[in-house]
Amino acid sequence: MLLQTISARSASTSLRLGKKVAAPSLYAIAGRRFYSSETEHDVVVIGGGPGGYVAAIKAAQEGLKTACVEKRGALGGTCLNVGCIPSKSLLNNSHIYHQINHDVKKRGIDVGDVKLNLGQMMKAKEESVSGLTKGIEFLFKKNGVDYIKGTGTLVGEHEIKVNPLEGGEVKTLKAKNIIIATGSEATPFPGLEIDEKKIVTSTGAIALTEVPKKMVVIGGGIIGLEMGSVWSRLGAEVTVVEYLGAIGGPGMDAEVSKNIQRTLGKQGIKFKTGTKVVSGSVEGETVKINVEAAKGGKEETLEADVVLVAIGRRPYTEGLGLENLDLETDERGRIVIDSEYRTKLPHIRVIGDVTFGAMLAHKAEEEGIAAVEYISKGYGHVNYGAIPSVMYTHPEVAWVGQSEQDVKASGKEYSVGTFPFSANSRAKTNLDTDGFVKFIADKETDRILGIHIVGPNAGEMIAEGVLALEYGASCEDIGRTSHAHPTLSEAFKEAAMATYSKAIHS
Amino acid sequence: MHTTVALRYARRAPLIQFLGKRTVPTGLDHSPRPHPEAPRASLPTSFAQYRERAQQHGPLSGYHAVTGGVAPREGEFFDRKELPQRFWRLQFSQEEMEVIESGGAAAFA
């Protein structure tokens, strides 16, 4: 009798209700507690930087109930709060200061006593930042994104525990889809303790309270050169120490790298390439950095008031709870994903600095859009061969596609065409003629393989190159397209002409 | 004369051409493939293992996650506990468990 009862219980695996019971979908199996709650979302984005907030807005625009969890207390991530945006404010204003001091006299402008008001310059920077972060909050409201200030931790396949920033009750969000966009942080230099006062990352370098007399920049990549430029223009004696033989970091064309190093050198920045930092210490008000040739050699000590550590960035996953779901990272700490941004759990996607690819805000934005489109439409698109890079020094450096050294290494036959800004009418009238435009194209088909610009307005001009590369254009397509006169963009056209034929003005 | 005519018709065809309005491609293969920027040409085995395990509970949803409200629709339930109590699994007592494990013999011990 008892056994009969047990048997009947065992057989009762289906629910005889006369009502339909949902088939166990993947998410129902993975997390069975999807009962009604006001915190259920179609998409929860963890991280409100350029990748995360763009993904959140796009998801809301696609009609998905979306939340974005951000622990900083302000949207925009590193880029907007302590990266691209504040550094551009300082780069722009320090450039104006430098021009007034060193450049305007030859333009027929005599100025009196010029003084730096660093406090006001920092205030202008902060106003730019706060205006833009509030702008994103407005966009969240406009599009119906739930903005949750707190630290998001993955606690289940569909559950995110949020520890509120301003205290209060810990809450759990439930989501069908999760997008991780937690970004990156500055890589520390072993043996140098970052205090953001004397030994600083880019975060400290945009917030110094006085102009250092001497500054050493460890790392001659884009961040190091931009921040080195700011403080050099404001009066610091800047020395850049770079382990590799050239500045600019990966992707920069060797010819461009040499050109910009020469130009920045003329502006007063000193370079020690092929040099490694051995050790460093703080002695009173001075930081001592011991360096030697990368291949070995005599040690030398550099002294500085401030040392900027700019050797790169690493993925940021602290407190994210990857271990709770056993999500893999590679040897560099990047979360492993497939070509549709999915982790091994298909409903958890990852974009931006915390996963593969260049650590660039605009790359993260593209991925944010694509990840959401994979969720809503099943198809997304990012062309990793056409992601531009820009260095906002003066002159600016910008490129897209392959460098000449990359193309040479591939063994492909190629053509190169260049055009100097010194032969461009607008650059001449602007008295701003450093640099050139360089095209690299397939020798047989004339299809553009890479475009490299060092010169005024390079960061804006490269957009045309990105479009051309994305569309699979030839140099002749550019050369036969009318460019307004007199503009800097004529240099772009003429470099294209020089690649498949001849430039007119050089 | 012939050359002029030939040149007149030999128009340059730009590589950039209008391809028509963009459409979402159909019939795409959504099986996991390595990310184009990944350093390795293969995915960890966990990707396939998860899918294999998940498939045991029913097919994975097509190419993208199901969207819409997370709550079950009217008349649908994700968990037995959401139903009236009479449909819940009955709790086995320790005594019943022993009976099951002993093939019924424990009831006569």
Explain what this protein looks like in three dimensions.
Chain A: The active site is at residue 485. The complex is a heterodimer of chains A (506) and B (109). Helix content of chain A is 34%, strand content 24%. Chain A is an alpha/beta fold and 506 residues long. Chain A has three domains: 41-186 and 315-377, FAD/NAD(P)-binding domain (3-Layer(bba) Sandwich), CATH 3.50.50.60; 199-311, FAD/NAD(P)-binding domain; 395-500, FAD/NAD-linked reductase, C-terminal dimerisation domain (Enolase-like, domain 1, 2-Layer Sandwich). In chain A, strand 1, helix 3 (50-61) and strand 2 (66-70) form a beta-alpha-beta unit. Chain B has 109 residues and is mainly α. Chain B has a domain at 78-109. Helix content of chain B is 25%, strand content 0%. Chain B has three helices and no strands. Chain B is elongated and about 110 Å long.
Please estimate the helix content of chain B: 10-25%
Question: Biggest protein-protein interface?
Answer: A-B, 67 and 57 residues
Radius of gyration of chain A: 27 Å
Rounded mean pLDDT score of chain B: 76
- Largest sheet of chain A at a glance? 5 strands, mixed, barrel
> Count the helices of chain A. How many?
16
Order of helices and strands of chain B: HHH
Kindly list the characteristics that best describe this protein.
heterodimer, A: 506 residues, alpha/beta, FAD/NAD(P)-binding domain, Enolase-like, domain 1, 3 domains, five-stranded mixed β-barrel, five-stranded parallel β-sheet, disordered N terminus, B: 109 residues, mainly alpha, 3 helices
